């Protein structure tokens, strides 16, 4: 029988490309000069072809082997999206090692748990910032023996045997290959689709993060199904701007990249993402709701600064877009000729320029996931003609569980299950999943694995939902967060919070009401949007705390809350969940302070415990409450911020009143 591997290690057919290194070799053999990766450096896009990537991974894998990295060991990767970190993931997988991407914005002490739990000895990091973090925790992580850094800036005078530059590691790799001919091909040949491909640590909303183990087969299978469903080809352009530690980014810019062979573009920095996106014009795009909210806030601020005629034109055509834009995108033939003409004119005057400003002119398909998105926010983007769709998944399910097919997109569902995925709903309303993309287990945590994976292979998601008449899954909330008001009515806090966050002036919201008679809320204002609003009205402020406490800002937030109440009043299931009282927090909820996860999910229980005095004040009728809170700054220092927080009442509506208000 013929050997399915070519002499360069590349598989001869697609079926043999069953690990990530083999997929890379397949593209390098078929299209050696095609762009695999681009990175913007000093304002100039630098291209790495598939052949160049193959050559670098070959040498890098040999370099790691020369330092003692062996099959089964874990390799940490920390930094922004960079071609060399992608090469590092591939090199580790070539050797049968296991990449463990970490969040680049995590403080040093947050990394200690992962390094200890995963017994990490090797790390490839981006720059001095990450090097300093690992030097800080080295005594707490005795197994850490090798730290390779990419960017040498600021590290010239670092003389530590733990450290090794990326260039020096490549030199060691070339020497190793000279002494071990055929080494790379032999290592690739040993790989199996059942090998562990990566460990992804969860965001840890309720405790220490858990390491989710995925095999090559689980990540590749779901990526291939989703890519075929959307007709992805090697011509796609993708912007990789989200943390590589988040499995969503990893699936879109690593697993699907290697399955489809498209080009991944790495922005110069977080500050240049918007400009870089306009330059690249991605065709395949992914954004969690928080990113879409931030973009909408920028649009709103710009329109408020515009001249009155331009504002009127914008609002007129956006009304047209909300009425017919999504229907036209779905191919609805019932849209009348006059509405089509209005929309076409709006595309010329408003939608087209706006999409170009957002860098979304070339998008064929865009996904949003990570947490529930507000229907209003979702409809806004689709009304512009952007093919934004919702999907449902998690770290444990390799992202792709449900996807909205073209022409079947709804604002309040996440679509039907993708091919090969089974779903069922328990009597308690919990969603259970059986899929080729399921995690193998939690790393060194059999108890946690047994809690979520039963003997029949069903994964218990902890999410509450149900199927609609068309077989689309509708997510209500996390099952543990869905509760009832004292009167027995449904209380779904995330649903309420998403409605609040649609307003550009509200950045975060936390709703309370489980087992209580009424719903109350904490509000975080968006400092940029509210600051711009205040400046245009000549309202002075000295900083976030001052602005958040202004009477004018409270009135602005009250109007937003009451609009949400009017909307909730028209929903028989949610009318009792209208917000009766609220306060504007004196600080932004922050991951460094433990209030958000690194993916900016609200840690509801932590916040409730930390600000219990404020919750009590909301419910006991107090008009204000003094609070002092410890905060952590970016450089690791701690301080405190205090304020006397005003507590405001909000108008609630009957269903008839809500209809009149609408």
Summarize the structure.
By secondary structure, the protein is an alpha/beta fold. It is built from 22 helices and 27 strands. The radius of gyration is 26 Å and the shape is globular.
Description:
With 662 residues, the protein is of the alpha/beta class. The protein folds into 3 domains: 216 residues, Rossmann fold (3-Layer(aba) Sandwich), CATH 3.40.50; 193 residues, Rossmann fold (3-Layer(aba) Sandwich); 179 residues, GMP Synthetase, Chain A, domain 3. The chain contains 22 helices and 27 strands. The chain has a 5-stranded parallel beta sheet, sandwiched between helices. A 5-stranded mixed beta sheet has the order 23-24-25-27-26, with helices on both faces. Strand 26 and strand 27 form a beta hairpin. The chain is globular, with a radius of gyration of 26 Å. The chain starts with 19 loop residues before the first helix and ends with a helix. The N terminus is likely disordered.
Map the helices and strands.
Elements: H1 20-30, E1 35-41, E2 44-49, H2 50-66, E3 74-78, H3 83-94, E4 98-102, H4 108-117, E5 122-125, H5 128-137, E6 146-149, E7 163-165, H6 166-179, H7 183-190, E8 196-201, E9 211-215, H8 216-230, E10 237-239, H9 247-260, E11 263-266, H10 273-280, E12 284-286, H11 289-305, H12 308-329, H13 337-358, E13 365-368, H14 375-383, E14 388-392, E15 402-403, E16 422-425, E17 430-434, E18 441-442, H15 446-452, E19 459-467, E20 473-478, E21 483-484, E22 490-491, H16 493-501, E23 506-512, E24 519-525, H17 527-536, H18 544-549, H19 551-569, E25 579-584, H20 604-610, H21 612-619, E26 624-632, E27 638-649, H22 655-661
Parallel strand pairs: 1-11, 3-4, 3-5, 5-6, 6-7, 10-11, 12-13, 13-14, 24-25
Antiparallel strand pairs: 1-2, 8-9, 9-18, 14-15, 16-17, 17-19, 19-20, 21-22, 23-24, 25-27, 26-27
Helix pairs in contact: 1-2, 2-3, 2-6, 4-5, 8-9, 11-17, 12-13, 12-14, 19-22
């Amino acid at each position: 029988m013929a050997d399915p591997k070519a002499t360069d290690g590349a598989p001869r057919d697609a079926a043999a490309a069953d690990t990530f290194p083999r997929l890379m070799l397949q593209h390098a053999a078929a299209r050696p000069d095609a762009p695999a990766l681009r990175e913007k450096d000093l304002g100039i896009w630098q291209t790495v072809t598939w052949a160049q990537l193959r050559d670098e991974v070959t040498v890098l894998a040999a370099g790691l082997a020369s330092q003692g990295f062996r099959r089964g060991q874990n390799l940490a990767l920390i930094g922004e999206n960079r071609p060399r970190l992608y090469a590092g993931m591939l090199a580790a997988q070539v050797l049968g090692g296991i990449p463990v991407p970490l969040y680049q914005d995590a403080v040093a002490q947050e990394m200690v748990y992962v390094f200890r739990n995963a017994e990490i000895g090797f790390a490839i990091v981006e720059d001095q910032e990450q090097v300093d973090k690992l030097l800080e925790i080295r005594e707490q992580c005795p197994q850490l023996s090798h730290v390779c850094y990419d960017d040498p800036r600021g590290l010239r005078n670092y003389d530590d045997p733990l450290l090794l530059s990326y260039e020096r590691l490549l030199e060691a790799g070339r020497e190793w290959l000279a002494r071990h001919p055929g080494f790379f091909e032999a290592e690739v040949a040993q790989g199996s689709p059942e090998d562990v491909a990566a460990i992804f640590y969860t965001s840890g909303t309720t405790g220490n993060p858990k390491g989710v183990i995925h095999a090559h087969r689980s990540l590749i299978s779901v990526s291939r199904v989703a890519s075929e469903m959307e007709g992805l080809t090697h011509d796609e352009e993708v912007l990789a701007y989200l943390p590589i530690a988040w499995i969503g980014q990893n699936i879109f810019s690593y697993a699907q990249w290697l399955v489809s062979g498209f080009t991944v573009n790495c922005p110069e920095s977080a500050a240049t993402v918007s400009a870089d996106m306009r330059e690249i014009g991605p065709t395949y795009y992914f954004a969690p709701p928080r990113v879409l909210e931030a973009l909408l806030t920028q649009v709103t601020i710009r329109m408020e600064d515009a001249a009155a005629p331009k504002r009127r034109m914008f609002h007129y055509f956006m009304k047209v877009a909300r009425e017919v834009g999504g229907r036209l995108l779905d191919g609805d033939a019932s849209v009348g000729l006059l509405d089509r003409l209005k929309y076409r004119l709006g595309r010329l005057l408003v939608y087209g320029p706006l999409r170009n400003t957002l860098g979304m002119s070339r998008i064929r398909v865009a996904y949003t996931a990570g947490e529930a998105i507000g229907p209003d926010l979702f409809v806004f983007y689709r009304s512009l003609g952007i093919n934004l769709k919702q999907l449902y998944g998690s770290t444990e399910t390799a992202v792709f569980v449900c996807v909205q097919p073209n022409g079947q997109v709804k604002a309040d569902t996440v679509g039907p299950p993708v091919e090969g995925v089974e779903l069922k709903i328990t009597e308690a309303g919990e969603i259970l999943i059986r899929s080729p993309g399921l995690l193998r287990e939690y790393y060194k945590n059999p108890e946690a694995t047994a809690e979520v994976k039963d003997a029949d292979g069903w994964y218990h998601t902890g999410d509450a939902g149900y199927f609609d008449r068309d077989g689309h899954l509708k997510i209500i909330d996390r099952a543990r967060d869905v509760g009832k008001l004292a009167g027995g009515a449904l209380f779904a806090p995330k649903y309420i919070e998403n409605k609040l966050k649609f307003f550009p002036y509200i950045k975060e919201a936390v709703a309370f009401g489980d087992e209580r008679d009424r719903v109350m809320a904490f509000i975080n204002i968006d400092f940029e949007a509210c600051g711009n609003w205040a400046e245009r009205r000549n309202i002075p402020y000295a900083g976030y705390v001052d602005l958040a406490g202004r009477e004018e800002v409270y009135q602005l937030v009250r109007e937003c809350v009451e609009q949400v109440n009017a909307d909730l009043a028209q929903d028989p299931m949610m009318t009792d969940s209208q917000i009766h009282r609220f306060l504007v927090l004196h600080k932004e909820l922050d991951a460094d302070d433990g209030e958000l996860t690194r993916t900016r999910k609200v840690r509801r229980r932590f916040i409730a415990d930390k600000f219990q005095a404020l919750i009590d004040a909301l419910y006991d009728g107090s008009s204000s409450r003094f609070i002092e809170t410890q905060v952590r700054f970016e450089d690791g220092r701690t301080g405190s911020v205090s304020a006397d927080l005003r507590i405001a009442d909000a108008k609630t509506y009957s269903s008839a009143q809500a209809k009149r208000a609408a």
